[in-house]
Amino acid sequence: MASRDDDDYAPSRIRLPTLGQNGENFVIWKTQLKSQITGMGKARYINGRATEPVKPILADGANDAARAAHKRDLETYDEEMDEWEKHNEKIRTLFFATIHETHKIRIANHTSARESWNMLCKMYEHQGELHTQSLVDRMHALKCPEGDRDPRPTLDQLDLLIANHASAGGTPNYSFAFSATDVATDFTKIEEAGIVSRGSTALLDSGANRHYCPSRKRFIEYRTIDAVPIRSADNRTFFATGCGKVPVT
């Protein structure tokens, strides 16, 4: 029967990300894996505090007492080595379960989990900024194709880029957030992002000569009109039944 300690190492019991082939989600992978190992009380196996036991050596010309002491030391060494190897290899198993196939070759001949950890970190520790900036550049370049009336595929691409940006450890700044308003579909999201504030509202020129408000009670001036069909960007039709003035706040 498996012990609770064994269960802590079972990949099936935990939900850890897999390090991408190009290390694109390295920050998230490193943070979660380190947290898991620390939570198991085994951080010393990746930070260098758990060192491999050293096998005792019997000096030449040792007497009977020294040989007896050496035998006891060997028994202690075997026990300590078994314990060290057990935890060291279980942590390396976590690595193999959470990295891309191309990375497994790089750490296959390592002896210690610390050696494997250091190599993986060295490979991607300093590439995070370049990768996140590349994702931001792709967000800025994103736009709906000419003549495409449905913005949803483009918004789906933006959602994916934002998710990848977060996985790579990126954090949105104001310039990034403002660029996102170019494809905003809900101005409440802009307000939540902190781009605009009460008393200082910015409007983007959509090119439309009329704008739609779904709430009758927000109108300060209103008059009923004959129903006018309106075609939305996703090819749905709805009807305007009135017009008037709505305050921008």
Describe this structure in words.
- This protein is mostly helical.
- The chain folds into 3 domains: 4-124, no CATH class; 128-201, no CATH class; 205-249, no CATH class.
- The protein has 10 helices and 2 strands, in the order ααααααααααββ.
- The protein has helices spanning 4-9, 26-39, 44-47, 64-97, 101-107, 113-124, 128-141, 152-167, 174-180, 187-192; strands at residues 221-231, 237-245.
- It has a two-stranded antiparallel sheet with strand order 1-2.
- A hairpin with a 5-residue loop joins β1 and β2 (237-245).
- The longest helix is centred in the first third of the chain and has 34 residues, at 64-97.
- The radius of gyration is 31 Å and the shape is rod-shaped.
- It starts with a helix and ends with a strand.
- Residues 203-248 form the Retrovirus-related Pol polyprotein from transposon TNT 1-94-like beta-barrel domain.
- InterPro entries: PolX-like_BBD (IPR054722).
